[in-house]
Design a protein that fits this description.
mainly alpha, 1 helix, 99% helix, coiled coil
Length: 166
């Protein structure tokens, strides 16, 4: 009986050890199962986070594309406006160049006209001077003629007086 008791005690000890080992294995398996569940949850969370980040990135890229398209369109409009301004400035510059050439031509003509008028003034001054000399000569001749007439009148007066005396 003692041997049987010892055998049973040994069996109980072995069974207890086996139960403990199984509990330990079971605990390890539960821990592995929990770890797997946690990994699955983490994978799901990462997958959801990845999808959200992809969606956000796609949305950001679409927003950037729209913004860039808008900026490109605005730049095109600005370029067209600036080209119009440039064309207008080139046209104005051409008009100013033509006007400047016309004014230079007119200025040359005016300078010629001014020189012609100066020459004409000099000619008129010379003519006036000649007329003044001619006038002075005529005045002197007139004075001599008046003096001669006066003498003639005196002589005629003397002749008339002599005849009346005679």
């Amino acid at each position: 009986l003692t041997d049987q008791m010892q055998g049973l005690t040994l069996n109980v000890t072995q069974l207890t050890a086996e139960v403990e080992r199984l509990k330990s294995e079971n605990a390890d398996q539960q821990e592995v199962a929990l770890g797997k569940q946690q990994l699955d949850l983490d994978r799901s969370a990462l997958s959801a986070q990845k999808e959200q980040m992809v969606e956000e990135s796609q949305q950001q890229m679409q927003n950037d594309l729209l913004r860039t398209s808008g900026e490109r369109d605005q730049l095109k409009l600005d370029k067209e406006r600036l080209q119009g301004s440039k064309d207008q400035l080139v046209a104005e510059a051409n008009q100013l160049r033509q006007e400047n050439q016309r004014l230079q031509y007119a200025s040359g003509k005016m300078e010629e006209e001014v020189q012609r008028l100066k020459d004409q003034i000099e000619d008129l001054k010379a003519a006036r001077h000649r007329l003044e000399l001619d006038n002075a000569t005529l005045v002197a001749k007139e004075d001599r003629l008046k003096a001669a007439l006066h003498k003639c009148a005196e002589v005629d007066g003397l002749s008339a007086a002599q005849q009346s005396l005679n």
